[in-house]
Amino acid sequence: MNDYSDLREEKYKSAEWMLDTYKYLRDRGANLLINVSPRPNGELPETVYQRFQEIT
């Protein structure tokens, strides 16, 4: 597939990194944008759901 959104090698930050970064930015009044892209079929990768479960 030649779509730019179809990444063959998905790399995700750890839940620990996400929480540490969020806390750092929150203390400074900033926001954290979590950029996740759906697959060509519109679904999110399972890893995204796992990370969200870990940080909630």
From TrEMBL:
The family database entries (InterPro entries) matched by this protein are listed as:
GH
Q: Which domain of life is it from?
A: Bacteria
Please name the SUPFAM superfamilies in this protein's record.
(Trans)glycosidases
Instruction: Check the record and name the Gene3D superfamilies matching this protein.
Output: Glycosidases
Task: Give the protein's recorded name.
Answer: Alpha-L-fucosidase
Query: What species is given as this protein's source?
Result: Lentisphaera profundi
